[in-house]
Write a structure and sequence with these properties.
about 325 residues, alpha/beta, Ribosomal Protein L4, Chain: A, two-stranded antiparallel ribbon, 9 helices
Protein backbone atom coordinates (compact mmCIF):
# COMPACT_ATOMS: atom_id res chain seq x y z
CA UNK A 1 0.00 0.00 0.00
CA UNK A 2 1.47 3.33 -1.04
CA UNK A 3 0.62 6.83 0.16
CA UNK A 4 0.92 10.03 -1.78
CA UNK A 5 1.07 13.52 -0.33
CA UNK A 6 -1.56 15.81 -1.78
CA UNK A 7 -2.04 19.54 -1.27
CA UNK A 8 -0.84 20.90 2.04
CA UNK A 9 -3.38 22.53 4.31
CA UNK A 10 -2.18 25.05 6.89
CA UNK A 11 -4.27 25.13 10.07
CA UNK A 12 -2.97 27.77 12.48
CA UNK A 13 0.70 27.05 13.08
CA UNK A 14 0.53 23.34 12.20
CA UNK A 15 1.06 22.19 8.62
CA UNK A 16 -1.17 19.21 7.92
CA UNK A 17 -0.92 17.12 4.77
CA UNK A 18 -3.85 15.41 3.13
CA UNK A 19 -2.76 11.82 2.57
CA UNK A 20 -4.59 9.79 -0.07
CA UNK A 21 -4.41 6.03 0.44
CA UNK A 22 -4.20 4.06 -2.75
CA UNK A 23 -5.59 0.55 -2.56
CA UNK A 24 -4.82 -1.96 -5.29
CA UNK A 25 -7.55 -2.86 -7.71
CA UNK A 26 -9.42 -6.12 -7.00
CA UNK A 27 -7.64 -9.09 -8.53
CA UNK A 28 -9.39 -11.61 -10.76
CA UNK A 29 -9.12 -15.19 -9.53
CA UNK A 30 -10.56 -18.45 -10.79
CA UNK A 31 -11.57 -21.76 -9.25
CA UNK A 32 -11.99 -25.17 -10.87
CA UNK A 33 -15.56 -26.38 -10.89
CA UNK A 34 -15.98 -30.11 -10.26
CA UNK A 35 -18.79 -32.59 -9.85
CA UNK A 36 -19.38 -35.08 -7.05
CA UNK A 37 -17.18 -37.66 -8.86
CA UNK A 38 -14.21 -35.25 -8.96
CA UNK A 39 -14.30 -34.58 -12.72
CA UNK A 40 -13.29 -31.10 -13.86
CA UNK A 41 -16.09 -29.04 -15.40
CA UNK A 42 -13.97 -26.04 -16.33
CA UNK A 43 -12.73 -22.93 -14.54
CA UNK A 44 -15.12 -20.41 -13.00
CA UNK A 45 -14.17 -16.77 -12.52
CA UNK A 46 -14.73 -15.54 -8.99
CA UNK A 47 -16.20 -12.13 -8.25
CA UNK A 48 -13.25 -9.70 -7.86
CA UNK A 49 -15.04 -7.50 -5.32
CA UNK A 50 -15.48 -10.54 -3.05
CA UNK A 51 -12.50 -12.83 -3.67
CA UNK A 52 -9.98 -10.34 -5.07
CA UNK A 53 -9.54 -7.77 -2.31
CA UNK A 54 -6.44 -7.09 -0.28
CA UNK A 55 -7.16 -8.48 3.22
CA UNK A 56 -7.48 -5.87 5.93
CA UNK A 57 -5.68 -7.52 8.82
CA UNK A 58 -6.62 -4.89 11.38
CA UNK A 59 -10.34 -5.24 10.67
CA UNK A 60 -10.04 -9.03 10.61
CA UNK A 61 -8.43 -9.03 14.05
CA UNK A 62 -11.03 -6.72 15.54
CA UNK A 63 -14.03 -8.57 14.10
CA UNK A 64 -12.74 -12.05 14.99
CA UNK A 65 -11.96 -10.87 18.52
CA UNK A 66 -15.49 -9.51 18.83
CA UNK A 67 -16.99 -12.76 17.52
CA UNK A 68 -14.97 -14.84 19.99
CA UNK A 69 -15.93 -12.51 22.83
CA UNK A 70 -19.63 -12.70 21.91
CA UNK A 71 -19.49 -16.50 22.05
CA UNK A 72 -18.47 -16.45 25.72
CA UNK A 73 -21.23 -17.46 28.12
CA UNK A 74 -20.18 -14.96 30.78
CA UNK A 75 -21.69 -17.05 33.58
CA UNK A 76 -18.62 -17.12 35.87
CA UNK A 77 -19.32 -15.91 39.37
CA UNK A 78 -17.58 -15.74 42.74
CA UNK A 79 -18.86 -15.05 46.24
CA UNK A 80 -17.92 -11.86 48.01
CA UNK A 81 -17.47 -11.67 51.78
CA UNK A 82 -21.11 -10.58 52.04
CA UNK A 83 -22.34 -13.65 50.14
CA UNK A 84 -20.26 -16.35 51.87
CA UNK A 85 -22.20 -18.21 54.54
CA UNK A 86 -21.10 -17.58 58.12
CA UNK A 87 -18.60 -15.10 59.51
CA UNK A 88 -21.00 -13.25 61.74
CA UNK A 89 -19.00 -13.61 64.92
CA UNK A 90 -15.58 -12.16 65.61
CA UNK A 91 -13.09 -15.06 65.16
CA UNK A 92 -10.91 -14.15 68.15
CA UNK A 93 -10.48 -11.35 70.62
CA UNK A 94 -9.14 -7.98 69.61
CA UNK A 95 -5.96 -7.90 71.74
CA UNK A 96 -3.59 -10.30 73.36
CA UNK A 97 -3.23 -12.93 70.66
CA UNK A 98 -0.32 -11.43 68.78
CA UNK A 99 -2.21 -11.74 65.50
CA UNK A 100 -3.70 -9.10 63.30
CA UNK A 101 -7.13 -8.05 64.38
CA UNK A 102 -10.02 -9.63 62.47
CA UNK A 103 -13.71 -8.90 62.56
CA UNK A 104 -14.99 -11.75 60.40
CA UNK A 105 -13.77 -15.18 59.35
CA UNK A 106 -15.08 -14.55 55.82
CA UNK A 107 -12.61 -11.78 55.07
CA UNK A 108 -10.81 -12.18 51.71
CA UNK A 109 -7.51 -12.45 53.58
CA UNK A 110 -8.63 -15.57 55.45
CA UNK A 111 -9.06 -19.14 54.28
CA UNK A 112 -12.68 -19.85 53.38
CA UNK A 113 -13.47 -16.19 53.03
CA UNK A 114 -14.95 -14.29 50.13
CA UNK A 115 -13.21 -13.21 46.94
CA UNK A 116 -12.20 -9.60 46.52
CA UNK A 117 -12.94 -8.08 43.13
CA UNK A 118 -13.91 -11.48 41.69
CA UNK A 119 -15.71 -12.00 38.36
CA UNK A 120 -19.47 -11.69 38.15
CA UNK A 121 -21.87 -12.69 35.34
CA UNK A 122 -21.71 -10.20 32.50
CA UNK A 123 -21.89 -9.96 28.73
CA UNK A 124 -18.69 -9.84 26.70
CA UNK A 125 -20.43 -8.80 23.49
CA UNK A 126 -18.82 -5.96 21.55
CA UNK A 127 -20.61 -3.65 19.17
CA UNK A 128 -19.17 -4.00 15.67
CA UNK A 129 -20.43 -1.94 12.70
CA UNK A 130 -22.06 -3.93 9.90
CA UNK A 131 -19.69 -2.52 7.30
CA UNK A 132 -16.72 -3.67 9.34
CA UNK A 133 -18.17 -7.17 9.69
CA UNK A 134 -18.73 -7.35 5.94
CA UNK A 135 -15.21 -6.10 5.20
CA UNK A 136 -13.74 -8.73 7.51
CA UNK A 137 -15.79 -11.44 5.77
CA UNK A 138 -14.68 -10.31 2.32
CA UNK A 139 -11.08 -10.10 3.51
CA UNK A 140 -11.22 -13.68 4.79
CA UNK A 141 -12.72 -14.93 1.52
CA UNK A 142 -10.09 -13.06 -0.50
CA UNK A 143 -7.32 -14.54 1.63
CA UNK A 144 -8.53 -18.10 1.02
CA UNK A 145 -8.94 -17.43 -2.68
CA UNK A 146 -5.43 -15.98 -2.85
CA UNK A 147 -3.85 -19.17 -1.50
CA UNK A 148 -6.10 -21.39 -3.61
CA UNK A 149 -8.10 -22.96 -0.81
CA UNK A 150 -11.58 -22.60 -2.33
CA UNK A 151 -13.36 -25.57 -3.92
CA UNK A 152 -16.53 -25.51 -6.00
CA UNK A 153 -18.94 -28.37 -6.70
CA UNK A 154 -21.86 -28.27 -9.12
CA UNK A 155 -24.28 -30.44 -7.13
CA UNK A 156 -24.00 -32.58 -4.04
CA UNK A 157 -25.88 -35.56 -5.51
CA UNK A 158 -27.07 -36.45 -2.00
CA UNK A 159 -30.69 -37.53 -1.75
CA UNK A 160 -30.62 -38.86 1.81
CA UNK A 161 -28.35 -38.43 4.84
CA UNK A 162 -25.36 -40.75 4.28
CA UNK A 163 -21.91 -40.19 5.76
CA UNK A 164 -20.41 -42.46 3.10
CA UNK A 165 -21.46 -40.04 0.35
CA UNK A 166 -19.86 -37.13 2.21
CA UNK A 167 -16.59 -39.05 2.63
CA UNK A 168 -16.61 -39.90 -1.07
CA UNK A 169 -17.06 -36.26 -2.06
CA UNK A 170 -14.12 -35.12 0.08
CA UNK A 171 -11.92 -37.91 -1.24
CA UNK A 172 -12.80 -37.24 -4.89
CA UNK A 173 -12.20 -33.51 -4.49
CA UNK A 174 -8.87 -34.21 -2.68
CA UNK A 175 -9.67 -31.94 0.25
CA UNK A 176 -7.46 -32.57 3.26
CA UNK A 177 -7.44 -30.93 6.64
CA UNK A 178 -10.40 -29.07 8.07
CA UNK A 179 -13.12 -28.27 5.53
CA UNK A 180 -15.87 -25.70 5.91
CA UNK A 181 -18.86 -26.83 3.86
CA UNK A 182 -21.25 -24.01 2.94
CA UNK A 183 -24.76 -25.34 2.28
CA UNK A 184 -28.13 -23.74 1.62
CA UNK A 185 -30.64 -23.47 4.41
CA UNK A 186 -32.89 -26.16 2.90
CA UNK A 187 -30.12 -28.74 2.20
CA UNK A 188 -30.69 -30.71 5.39
CA UNK A 189 -29.60 -34.04 3.90
CA UNK A 190 -26.20 -32.59 2.97
CA UNK A 191 -25.75 -31.11 6.43
CA UNK A 192 -26.58 -34.40 8.13
CA UNK A 193 -24.22 -36.29 5.82
CA UNK A 194 -21.22 -34.18 6.91
CA UNK A 195 -22.25 -34.05 10.59
CA UNK A 196 -20.35 -37.19 11.66
CA UNK A 197 -17.04 -36.16 10.05
CA UNK A 198 -14.68 -34.54 12.58
CA UNK A 199 -12.67 -32.77 9.88
CA UNK A 200 -15.74 -31.22 8.22
CA UNK A 201 -17.86 -28.38 9.57
CA UNK A 202 -21.08 -27.18 7.95
CA UNK A 203 -22.57 -23.73 7.93
CA UNK A 204 -25.28 -21.98 5.97
CA UNK A 205 -24.65 -19.05 3.71
CA UNK A 206 -26.51 -16.75 6.11
CA UNK A 207 -24.28 -17.80 9.04
CA UNK A 208 -20.94 -17.51 7.24
CA UNK A 209 -18.44 -15.59 9.38
CA UNK A 210 -14.83 -14.51 9.18
CA UNK A 211 -13.83 -16.65 12.15
CA UNK A 212 -15.23 -19.83 10.58
CA UNK A 213 -13.35 -19.11 7.34
CA UNK A 214 -10.00 -18.45 9.01
CA UNK A 215 -10.08 -21.57 11.17
CA UNK A 216 -10.73 -23.86 8.17
CA UNK A 217 -8.17 -25.07 5.64
CA UNK A 218 -10.64 -25.39 2.76
CA UNK A 219 -13.90 -23.70 1.77
CA UNK A 220 -16.33 -25.87 -0.17
CA UNK A 221 -19.08 -24.04 -2.06
CA UNK A 222 -21.81 -25.28 -4.37
CA UNK A 223 -23.34 -23.49 -7.32
CA UNK A 224 -26.19 -22.35 -5.06
CA UNK A 225 -24.04 -20.91 -2.27
CA UNK A 226 -21.16 -19.34 -4.23
CA UNK A 227 -21.49 -15.56 -3.77
CA UNK A 228 -21.57 -13.57 -7.00
CA UNK A 229 -22.08 -9.98 -5.79
CA UNK A 230 -21.24 -7.84 -2.78
CA UNK A 231 -24.96 -7.21 -2.30
CA UNK A 232 -25.27 -10.85 -1.22
CA UNK A 233 -23.49 -9.88 2.00
CA UNK A 234 -25.69 -6.90 2.89
CA UNK A 235 -27.46 -7.34 6.21
CA UNK A 236 -27.66 -11.02 7.04
CA UNK A 237 -26.73 -11.93 3.44
CA UNK A 238 -29.50 -14.52 3.16
CA UNK A 239 -29.82 -16.21 -0.21
CA UNK A 240 -32.98 -14.76 -1.83
CA UNK A 241 -35.62 -17.17 -3.07
CA UNK A 242 -38.38 -16.76 -5.62
CA UNK A 243 -41.16 -17.95 -3.31
CA UNK A 244 -40.25 -15.47 -0.59
CA UNK A 245 -39.97 -12.60 -3.08
CA UNK A 246 -43.37 -13.35 -4.59
CA UNK A 247 -44.95 -13.62 -1.15
CA UNK A 248 -43.36 -10.32 -0.17
CA UNK A 249 -44.70 -8.65 -3.34
CA UNK A 250 -48.24 -10.00 -3.09
CA UNK A 251 -49.09 -10.36 0.59
CA UNK A 252 -48.41 -6.83 1.92
CA UNK A 253 -50.34 -5.10 -0.91
CA UNK A 254 -53.86 -6.30 0.04
CA UNK A 255 -53.14 -5.62 3.68
CA UNK A 256 -52.02 -2.08 2.94
CA UNK A 257 -54.99 -1.53 0.62
CA UNK A 258 -57.44 -2.86 3.21
CA UNK A 259 -56.10 -0.73 6.04
CA UNK A 260 -57.54 2.64 4.76
CA UNK A 261 -60.93 1.04 3.98
CA UNK A 262 -61.15 -0.58 7.41
CA UNK A 263 -60.11 2.64 9.07
CA UNK A 264 -62.70 4.66 7.11
CA UNK A 265 -65.45 2.16 7.95
CA UNK A 266 -64.52 2.27 11.63
CA UNK A 267 -64.59 6.09 11.60
CA UNK A 268 -67.97 6.14 9.84
CA UNK A 269 -69.41 3.70 12.36
CA UNK A 270 -68.21 5.87 15.24
CA UNK A 271 -69.70 9.01 13.59
CA UNK A 272 -73.07 7.28 13.01
CA UNK A 273 -73.19 6.08 16.59
CA UNK A 274 -72.39 9.56 17.90
CA UNK A 275 -75.07 11.14 15.66
CA UNK A 276 -77.70 8.67 16.88
CA UNK A 277 -76.79 9.37 20.49
CA UNK A 278 -77.05 13.15 19.93
CA UNK A 279 -80.39 12.86 18.14
CA UNK A 280 -81.81 10.69 20.89
CA UNK A 281 -80.75 13.23 23.50
CA UNK A 282 -82.39 16.12 21.58
CA UNK A 283 -85.65 14.20 21.15
CA UNK A 284 -85.78 13.43 24.85
CA UNK A 285 -85.40 17.12 25.71
CA UNK A 286 -87.94 18.60 23.22
CA UNK A 287 -90.81 16.10 22.83
CA UNK A 288 -93.31 15.68 25.69
CA UNK A 289 -93.97 12.32 27.18
CA UNK A 290 -96.78 10.32 25.61
CA UNK A 291 -100.03 9.92 27.59
CA UNK A 292 -103.02 7.72 27.17
CA UNK A 293 -105.62 9.10 24.69
CA UNK A 294 -108.79 10.64 26.17
CA UNK A 295 -112.35 10.34 24.88
CA UNK A 296 -112.12 13.66 23.01
CA UNK A 297 -108.71 13.04 21.48
CA UNK A 298 -108.45 11.00 18.30
CA UNK A 299 -106.95 7.59 18.61
CA UNK A 300 -104.55 5.94 16.26
CA UNK A 301 -104.55 6.89 12.60
CA UNK A 302 -107.33 5.26 10.60
CA UNK A 303 -109.74 4.86 13.56
CA UNK A 304 -113.25 6.39 13.28
CA UNK A 305 -113.97 9.54 15.28
CA UNK A 306 -116.42 9.17 18.13
CA UNK A 307 -119.73 11.10 17.69
CA UNK A 308 -120.65 13.97 19.99
CA UNK A 309 -123.94 14.18 21.83
CA UNK A 310 -125.59 16.45 19.17
CA UNK A 311 -124.86 13.89 16.47
CA UNK A 312 -121.90 15.66 14.89
CA UNK A 313 -118.34 14.59 15.04
CA UNK A 314 -115.60 16.56 16.77
CA UNK A 315 -114.49 18.21 13.53
CA UNK A 316 -117.94 19.79 12.95
CA UNK A 317 -119.35 17.41 10.34
CA UNK A 318 -122.65 15.77 11.01
CA UNK A 319 -122.91 12.07 11.21
CA UNK A 320 -124.66 9.95 8.66
CA UNK A 321 -127.43 9.03 11.15
CA UNK A 322 -128.28 12.70 11.78
CA UNK A 323 -128.73 13.42 8.07
CA UNK A 324 -130.94 10.44 7.72
Amino acid sequence: MTTTTADSVRSGTVLRHTIAKERPAPATRTVTRRNAAGHDLGPVELEPTIFGLEPNRAVLHQVVTAQLAASRAGTQSTLTRAEVRGGGAKPFRQKGTGRARQGSSRSPSMSGGGVALGPKPRSYAQRTPKKMVRLALLSALSDRADIGRIALIDDWKITEPRTKDAVTILRKLKLTGSVLVVVAHDELDVERSFANLPEAHTTTFAELSAHDILRADWLLFSDRTLPTAVSDFSGTHVVPEVEEDEAADTSPAPAKAAEPAAKAAKTAAKATKAAKATKAAVVDDTEPTETEPTETEPTETGAAAEPVADGSTEDGTEGADADA
